[in-house]
Amino acid sequence: MARFDLKKGDRFNLTKDEGLSKIQVDLSWLSGADLDASAFLLTEDGTIGEDADFVYYNSNNRTEPFDRQKFGSKNNWRANTVPMSFDGSVVGSADDLGDGGDDGDDEAGETMHVNLTKVRREITEIVFCVTIYQHSPDETFKNVRDPRILITNEETGEELCAYNLKERFSTETAVVVGALVLNRDGEWEFEAVGKGYDGGMQTLIDMYA
To answer: Does residue 101 surpass a pLDDT of 60?
Structure first.
């Protein structure tokens, strides 16, 4: 069980854990839809400074460079590597498509990893999002149950804080779940956000890119 369960708007100071440098970010949900986790590394003006600071399943900046002899095709390369940010501080997740289960309510999730020591100086916020890849107009966050984000000390396995979203969504197809925010004292805090948007991933790109 996480040390602190947060409510929307709460913040948890990560640097209270002396020596904390690597954290694991687990996003989970119950849904028959295809959901994707992503992250945006933002500068002080609230936008990404590099294309690779949008960390998502189809990014071309990955943990291994493309090698045609090894991977054969770009599709196979993406299927066997994971995305990472421009500075390598945020490593994304393999795409969990979910199979809907027998009852169309599949437990799924994706994991991201953050090395705080690698985050370059101009980054002041790392935003974690979940979007729905819509196969039909009816697939929205109205039908997603128990969305949750869990922050863990990756080196010790200790669960630090968690945020279970209680918001009632309807037409939204993108949710900013939470964010790592650099405070005025230069310390990293996790903020529970829980804000939904229509327009899916494109809306987030328009906001942050």
So the answer is: no
Residue 116's contacts (CB-CB under 8 Å, 6 or more residues apart) are 14, 20, 21, 22, 23, 89, 188
Give residue 160's identity as a one-letter amino acid code: L
Pairwise pLDDT comparison (40 vs 143), residue with the higher score: 40
CA distance 110 to 120: 24
Residue 73, Cβ neighbours under 10 Å: how many?
10
Q: What 3-state class would DSSP assign to 116? A: helix
CA 157-101-2 angle, 5° bins: 20
Q: Which residue has the tokens 């990014």?
A: 59
∠ CA 187-57-60, rounded to 5°: 90
Domain that holds residue 148: 4-55+89-208
What CATH number does the domain containing 47 carry?
2.60.60.30
Domain count, the chain: 1
Q: CB–CB of 125/3 below 8 Å?
A: no
Distance in angstroms (rounded) separating the CA atoms of residues 132 and 105: 14
Mean pLDDT of 137-145: 91
Summarize pLDDT for 74-85 with one digit per residue, the tens.
999 999 999 999
Sheet order of strands, 174-182 included: 11-13, 188-197, 174-182, 125-133, 34-42, 54-55
Residue in 54, 93, 99 with CA at minimum distance from that of residue 204: 54
